[in-house]
Each structure stands twice: as structure tokens, then as C-alpha cells.
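Input record (one chain):
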Amino acid sequence: MGSVNQASQILSRRAFGRSLVGAVLARVCAAAERDQPGRLVWSAEPAAKLSLERRYRADAQVLLFGITLLRREDVGGGSVLWREYEAGGAARLLEFNGYSTPARAAGLNRVGFIREMARVAGSEMPECSYFGLMTASPE
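The corresponding structure, as predicted from the sequence alone:
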């Protein structure tokens, strides 16, 4: 009986109801998106006409009044990806990724990316999709 009381304190009926409504709405919206042909989706174009990728290394430095106090190389990295497709109009994908290495960056542990896909098809209205994520940390 104690575990039931603990579970009810963690998730109230109101919170459960909101979660349930959110899950149902997400399903309905996903089904509506799939039913519209010609919509921009992440996996819309299988073969890229142009694909470019560039990788970067991140270096860090601590400045005080423009004077370098500390410098460390290779504390993280990142990449940028650019792809162009030619199916049903000009479509472009732009993606940025970045990360830090905690052992080299004084404990800073971050990972993040952002992705954008855009398409212009003749006289139609331009269409664009975005998605991004970055880890949270207390600093």
C-alpha cells in the first residue's frame, strides 16, 4: 500500500490526464501529417544532389582584460552538413552538431544539434522544418 501512495504523490490524476491527452493529440497530429502527400518530411529525399560536410575542433581559452590566462586545445568539436535535393522542388538540409569532452573541458559536458530542412517548389509557398536539442547542465 505504501508504494501506491508514493506513486500517487509522484503522478496526480491531473498530470496523468494531461499526459494522456498529450499522447492522443500527438498521435492524431502525426496521422494528419502522414495523410498529406507532398509535405516536407526529414526522410523525404533519399538521394542528395549535393552533399557537403565539414568537421571542426573546438579550442578553449580564458581571457582576463584581453590577456590569455589559460589555453587548452581539443576540448570538443562539431560538424556542419549541407545537402541539396531536387525532388518536387529545391530542398535543402542544414545540420549543425557540437559536443564537448568533459575530461578536456574542465567537466563541461554538452552535446547539441540543430537541423533545418527547407523546400521551395515553383510557385508554392516555401516550407520549412526545424528540430534541435541541447543537453542541460547546472553550470
